[in-house]
Design brief:
Radius of gyration: 19 Å
Protein name: Luciferase-like domain-containing protein
Helix content: 40-55%
Number of domains: 1
GO molecular function: oxidoreductase activity, acting on paired donors, with incorporation or reduction of molecular oxygen
Order of helices and strands: EHEHEHEHHEHEHEHHHEHEH
Largest sheet: 8 strands, parallel, barrel
Shape: globular
CATH class: Alpha Beta
InterPro entries: Bact_Lucif_Oxidored, CmoO-like, Luciferase-like_dom, Luciferase-like_sf
Strand content: 5-15%
Pfam family, one: Bac_luciferase
Distance between the termini: 23 Å
CATH superfamily: Luciferase-like domain
GO cellular component, one term: cytosol
Number of strands: 9
Amino acid sequence: MENIRGVARGAAEVPLSVLELATVGEGSTPAEALRGATELARRAEEWGYHRIWVAEHHGMPGVASSSPAVIIAHLAASTSTIRVGSGGVMLPNHAPLVVAEQFGTLHALHPGRIDLGLGRAPGTDMVTAQALRRSANVDPDEFPQEVAALTAFLDGTNARVQAIPRGDDRPPIWLLGSSGFSARLAGLLGLPFAFAHHFSAANTEPALELYRESFRPSEVLAEPYAMIGVSALAAASEEEALRQAMPGALAFLRMRLGRPSRFPTPEEAAAYPYSAAETEFVYGRLADVVYGDPEQVRTGLEELRKRTGADELMLTTMVHGTETRIRSYELIARAYEMTP
């Protein structure tokens, strides 16, 4: 089993990692977004980020990460040292055997570099979720049984069915969550836990506390290991960072209103006719984003790390344009004096 605990590089007290969604900006294409994700993976490896994960989303015009296993294969083949994984595979959408075969294959191709993060949400609207799933009666409360079935396939302990290929060990399994359900389950199973602070900030500290209270040592971990996903954006100035952050808030607003679209430009976000309620929503969303010049972002991330006790920070940067996103990660790496 791979060692879960990463090594901090440079001045970072804990490892910094990347969450990628392959966002499709207005005026761009999914192909360009995926090429941008590949370039980000290469650069993140050069700068010393510990891992890059790909999220699973469906039915969203502004997000091209609908097939994490396919993208992971490409990113891992395009890099050599950075860990690559799913943040996460939405397990209710897939047969556990299929996931075991996919990640067994990835692990065979790139031993020691693949992470398998699992979530219990659909990653889409319910109509699309029904089209994805094997049965109309999928119950998200069966997630623990699905995790157990997947683990048995990866470990080779299912007496009737073997997942092929399967090596002498398996990729590390992480549980992902935005509430207490997966936090408690991860603790009881002795697995590492990743919390979605970037869209459920109010639940971060209660969920991490529940995870740590529930934790039972396992063959994987002797003590809890918690990572949090954080929206972070660094630019030359706080004003420019806010300008670049506004499209992400507008994209989230449109999704909540049932009108998902390609990722808007800063100009489009600035010109949008926000109602009073929409303005409140947008600035509430921005309150959970760590943005500013590089030193402001580093200070904000360190305050969050100390407050939550997180063992690792996974940064997601929702902006229009690959160059802007890559530049933000570079500025943060420099602020932390990271080394590859």
